[in-house]
Amino acid sequence: MVRRLRRSVVGLLAVLAVLLLTGLGVGCALSAPTWKGEPTEHFDGKKFVSPGAPERYVDQSALGAFLKWQAESKRGPWSDYRDVPPGAPPPREVPLGGLRVTFINHATTLIQLDGINVLTDPIYAERASPYDFVGPKRVRPPGIKFSDLPRIDAVVLSHNHYDHMNLETLERISNTWPGVRFYAGLGNKALLEKRGLTNVVELDWWSSREQGPITIQSVPNQHFSNRGLCDSDGTLWTAWVMTGKGGRAYFGGDTGYGPHFKLVQEKLGAMRLAVLPIGAYEPEWFMGPVHMSPQEAVQAALDLKATLAVPMHYGTFALADDGETEPVDELNKALGVQPAPFVVLGFGEGRDVPEVQP
């Protein structure tokens, strides 16, 4: 009996070991190429870091913390998928000095300035996942139909997570507009080129490139990167500033709250537009380093001295414990305590950004 039990235990452990090794193998196979370069203040020679990240939160990459979150998770309510009518097609472009923003879904917005059309972290896929049969699934269609998008001149990518760097969508964009240019942080070019996206510009923080009459600049934010289990923090995450004749448009990507907002404003000046994330922030003890709460987004808009702030990163994919409408509800509560120039756009809604007053 003891011998039989021992064989059963050994057999079970063997099965678990095979499953673990298989999982590790698959996880490493999904990993992206990583950056190779000289150490800097935000790159230690192997991995990137966020120098201003607060110490009061747990390390999100720690397996124990992740398992603790999963064991204690109390996710707020999300609706089932519903087929909502799309918004009206955006204008083909805006004139010199003009600035317009359209909220599409998740972190995907269309920013139009000085005749240049920029898409941010575009995702039109059904799932934010490496697979089409598992992973976070959208609860609503994109607010603008892909066929109703204007000519896309540039795409800015904040980092390589699946809900922000969706290769299926990027390939579709490249096939539709062959002249489009893709902007990403250091180390991401290799993965994008592997998928046939050849017009890729990768930039370090504070580096920039001219795109017609505007300048597109990488600026610091506070996050992390990986696509698998073996490429943790191997590519750079970034926010973006687009500067044109009429002022600056800021896209925050995925980011926790930190000193980088004030730093960007002090170095570059006030923002005419700030597109800021407000979702996937619960539980804050776990998500705090990498995802802002709505209250922190209000402070970020003030730090950036934004003329207009627009929230994103909510209401499309259930990624954390906050419910579908909770981020906007909490944002409205926060604005009642600390006013800031936020306008919540509906999915597919566009808005001309007011000019900066002298």
Topology (elements, then pairings):
Layout: H1 2-29, H2 63-72, E1 99-105, E2 108-113, E3 116-120, E4 154-156, H3 167-176, E5 181-185, H4 189-194, E6 200-203, E7 208-211, E8 214-219, E9 239-244, E10 247-251, H5 260-268, E11 273-277, H6 284-287, H7 294-303, E12 308-312, H8 326-337, E13 350-352
Parallel strand pairs: 3-4, 4-5, 5-6, 10-11, 11-12
Antiparallel strand pairs: 1-2, 1-13, 2-3, 7-8, 8-9, 9-10
Helix pairs in contact: 7-8
Strand content: 15-25%
Largest sheet composition: 7 strands, mixed
Mean pLDDT: 91
Q: In the CATH hierarchy, what is the superfamily of the largest domain?
A: Ribonuclease Z/Hydroxyacylglutathione hydrolase-like
Q: List unreliable stretches of 5+ residues.
A: 1-24
Distance between the termini: 86 Å
As a whole number of angstroms, the C-alpha radius of gyration is 21 Å
Subunit organisation of the chains: single chain
Give the structure's gist in a few sentences.
The chain is of the alpha/beta class and 358 residues long. The chain has helices at residues 2-29, 63-72, 167-176, 189-194, 260-268, 284-287, 294-303, 326-337; strands at 99-105, 108-113, 116-120, 154-156, 181-185, 200-203, 208-211, 214-219, 239-244, 247-251, 273-277, 308-312, 350-352.
Key terms:
disordered N terminus, alpha/beta, six-stranded mixed beta sheet, 2 domains, 358 residues, 8 helices, Metallo-beta-lactamase, Chain A, seven-stranded mixed beta sheet
Q: Could you explain how this protein is built, in words?
A:
The protein has 358 residues and is of the alpha/beta class. It has two domains: 1-30; 99-352, 4-Layer Sandwich (Metallo-beta-lactamase, Chain A), CATH 3.60.15. Helix content is 25%, strand content 18%. The protein is built from eight helices and 13 strands. The chain has helices at 2-29, 63-72, 167-176, 189-194, 260-268, 284-287, 294-303, 326-337, and strands spanning 99-105, 108-113, 116-120, 154-156, 181-185, 200-203, 208-211, 214-219, 239-244, 247-251, 273-277, 308-312, 350-352. The strands form two sheets. Strands 6-5-4-3-2-1-13 form a seven-stranded mixed sheet. β1 (99-105) and β2 form a beta hairpin. α7 packs across α8 (326-337). The radius of gyration is 21 Å and the shape is globular. Mean pLDDT is 91; it is low at 1-24.
